[in-house]
Amino acid sequence: MGRSSMPPALVELANPTSPEAQVAALRNLKNEIVGHDQRKELAVRHGVVKPLTGILRTEARKGGKRRRWANGNSSAAREGERATEWGTEEELRFQATLVVGSLANGGPAFIAPLLAGDVLSPLVETLSPSEVPSKLLVATLRTLNQIADAVTQEGPWKDAADGPLRSTLSSTVYGIMYARPVVESLAEILAQETRSATAHQQISLAAKLIAKTCQEESQKKLLLDAGILDLLATKLAAIASVDAQALRMEPRQPSREELPAMYLPDIIEAIAAFVERSNYNAARFIYSQPIQQLFGASKEDGYAYQATPWEKLTPRLQTIQNKSDAYAKSWPALGSFSTLGTVEGYNRLDALQTTSRTVITDEPENALFIWLMFVARRNEGRTRLSACWLLALLKIFGDKWPLNDPSKTTRDRHFSYLIIPLVIKMIDEANETSDYARRNAPMTPQAREECRFLLARSPLVLAALVGNNKTLQNAAVDARVLLTLVQILKKSFDPVTTSSKPLWSPRPASNNRPDPTVDQPSSTLGSPGFSAEIIHGFRCRESALLALAAMADTQDHLRKLVIEIGAATYILDSLVPYSEQTKDLSPSTPHDASASSRMGNPVPVLVAACKVTRSLSRSVSVLRTSLIDHGIAQPSFDLLTHPNVRVQIAATEVITNLVLEVSPMRTEIMEAGALKTLCEHCRSANFDLRFSSLWALKHLCLGISTTTKIQCLEELGVGWLVQTLNGEPGKGSTSTPLGMGTPNAAGEQVDILNAVDDPHMDVDEEASSPDDEDTMTDSIASMRRHQHHGSRYTSATNIRDRLQQIKNDEQDQRLNSERDDIRMQEQALDFLRNFTAEEKASGEMIDHLLKSFGHSRFFELLDAKLRPKGASAIPGPSQPRATGIRAGDAPNYWSNLNTTREGGNWASYPPTELIASTLWILVHLANGRPQHRSLLISQSQLMQHVLPLLSHPRRDVRLPCAWFINNLTWVEDHGDEPASRERAQSLRQLGFEEGARLLGRDTDLDIRERAKTAVEQMGKLLGDGGRSTGYQSPAGFGEQGGAGGAGGGGGNTSSVSTSRNSNLDSDLDSDLLDYPCAASSRPSSSSLPT
């Protein structure tokens, strides 16, 4: 097409002479523009969109009315087939739909005029299979999929600044698609029970459309209410029933719901779109009737588990076996543990000598998981990928809501041997730089497209599988996946060349005036967006970064390995946002692809880069060497002011680790203005940004100068802190404690506020010892195990109760608001805790804090976090003051300590996190000057509320109690002995001495030692010596007599010492991050990165 004249077909469409001529014109236009973007642009500029809209709308109205009349006629059975015969009107609409699909293939530049011309509305209005011929419905669904693919190529500058990641075109398209009539039509398509190949194709295209577009919670809810998830589960069960019949040796009995196996990945991906980031949807899928009927069992709670035929589909895993075992030779470990050096425990198996065959078999896996594993192992390509993706999502759900699944304990081994090797094999085979790719080059266009899809998606599957799971991380490292991920990351920065050229015209573009007879909005191209190659590069970059972040999130040696293989340079490049100059590109000017590849990154890549930076910054050695060498501080700080709130949150989580006291980048970040920016973000409307910013300020406030601390407090505002501690506006106040007093759907008292592990509190922690009494916690994780052991299969009533419990936890706005409020209060308390931490314990910060808040208001705020529900803030007539308790009454209070600890009314107390954080503030106050210790003891009501906490079932509450008594009995110098003796006498009268004695027999070593020291100090002050305590004092009073130590619990590591030496260990080992205590001699809550 050498000249920019109007194509003849457009003349007929603009001035139609007959339906037959229009059909011929559309067919010619379709043949002209297919695969030719320049001709598509010419057709749009000459106004092809409006005639297309008119044809689609007019013919849809005619066809719909005719078919509705036929379906409503009493003789519909006879006339239905005749009414849906293919005629000229159907052919006209069919050809128009194909032309729209061809235009959509041109990219986002052509979607803008299609939306301006309102082409999408008549397409989605006629999706009902009862009103639309099958051939036309297939074409319409295929066109909608093409439009959904095109909007993903829109430029990153269209991302919303303060909301969900949605571009202008995609938000418009999804808004039209996710209307109730359209969703009901999709449900009608999926509900078809026929063995027609055309119907199967319709179901597949509808499932693809859902998988591509269903991302927001509102969209999922709309589809869920229409029953689409249950329909997809029915289709999946119908396909799986083929394998079930084969296992039972039954004759083949095809079901009307059954689809060909080639459509299985489409169904699985649509289900995965529901399940992703929604535990309730995952539970709805697992407990749906078709899934339970096929994969469940008839056993009720309390019955012994029996083997099912599904277990024949996967190999039997064994913990210990003989080398001569024939079974071991038949089923090797698939290479996932080919080198066992990095997997602790497995490297000793060869040393085990057994005289006879010793086999310990694992608990059989869930039947649904077994079948998905079988699908992944039997198939390749998209089918394998989709099965592994759904397995990963269901595993995430199972980790959070185990619901007594007995296979949970051995699931990691199944995934290590059976799934991780398959995922890594997909990554290796899809990697363009691998030997496999070079051996199989060149590939067909279809094979190349599938390979690109696998390359972009398989690292995401790996990230979902190995996140927070050391076993699976080690299995992946043994398969040498880290180097492959870095190769993919490096390849994503390679320049991409395109051959796009502007359409030639005999006249300059400046002289081309728009035709006044043509509708301008529908004849003007939009922004060209990115080419498919650049979008693919961004997706590969994002997935590789997320996989690296998941691999390095828990183990320090893996963080070092990521740095050693050269990933730091590409991570730094991924932190650069997309350049603002690309906003000024004209629609007709194609992007310079080679420049775009290194011009910057869209929002998803920036978020992924922040995540991997956060994972790496958890290592002290990496933080002090590689990250500072690569200059990671300034790019991370720059992202704090990015217009997208998701990037701000991710960058704040990175800054939280970079401003640690052990970080050499702290000064640089503070000089750049981080303090002011973080304080501003604490007032953001977005909760996650407020929470992360306050967490970062908590870290920043520790170990800085007095002037900077005061500036931080003034910038944040005492009023804001008081408001946060009292409960943010519109949220629950802690004056009414929130704990285990909330019943779930089954009527159980569940601590909903402690139900979910804080996603930000993901520091490395030491494994709990078997004797640790934290198993007595009131968290929902323990409440979920109230049924009989091994009760995998439950009744319909229990399923409904469990679904309601999961739904409330995820969707109940009141509970989520209260939970968020508790999290903010915890961070505010920790901020105050670090604010009062001083190098020389001068008490200056304590004085400033008390002056800023006011003595009465400050202690009332703390008391509100310790007293149980219904307790009075001031002593009442029937409630004696603490100073009136006689010394002889104290032992009676502690006569039943064990009963109090196990069966006390702890449900009426505030959440444990708030209690622990408040107690550590009291520990800090007691670590100040002697006047501060006397001031604390004078707070009689506060001391009364602290006393019962010495018998709390949680270690992280009892430990600060022990430190609190220890610090209150500390003797500053010989001149402080009279005042210290008074304090010791008051503590004895209050009952703290007897409480400390009983803590001296605690199961936790740290608590025992702190309590023993406190009892010894009190005994010396009161003249009892070693006779009344039963302990020997290791030292006298003074600066050399204190006991240094550390203690921590929960997500916030805390360390306190009664000694005056408060310097951090100068030789911190990186392995410190795997231990929940820091080598600090003052109580801080930021000893570990997040």
Q: Which superfamily, in CATH terms, is the homologous superfamily of the domain at 838-870 and 905-1022?
A: Leucine-rich Repeat Variant
The CATH topology of the domain at 838-870 and 905-1022 is Leucine-rich Repeat Variant
Helix content: 55-70%
Distance between the termini: 60 Å
What structural class results from the helix and strand content?
mainly alpha
- Which shape, going by the Cα principal axes? elongated
GO biological process, one term: proteasome-mediated ubiquitin-dependent protein catabolic process
Biased composition (Low complexity): 1053-1065, 1080-1090
Main location: cytoplasm
InterPro entries: ARM-like, ARM-type_fold, Armadillo, ARMC8/Vid28
Describe this entry's structure for a reader.
The protein is 55% helix and 1% strand. With 1090 residues, it is mainly α. It is elongated and about 110 Å long. It comes from Lophiostoma macrostomum CBS 122681. Residues 1038-1052 have a biased composition (Gly residues). It is found in: Cytoplasm; Nucleus. Residues 1053-1065, 1080-1090 have a biased composition (Low complexity).
Short description:
Helices cover 55% and strands 1% of the residues. By secondary structure, it is an all-alpha fold. A hairpin with a 5-residue loop joins strand 1 and strand 2 (749-750).
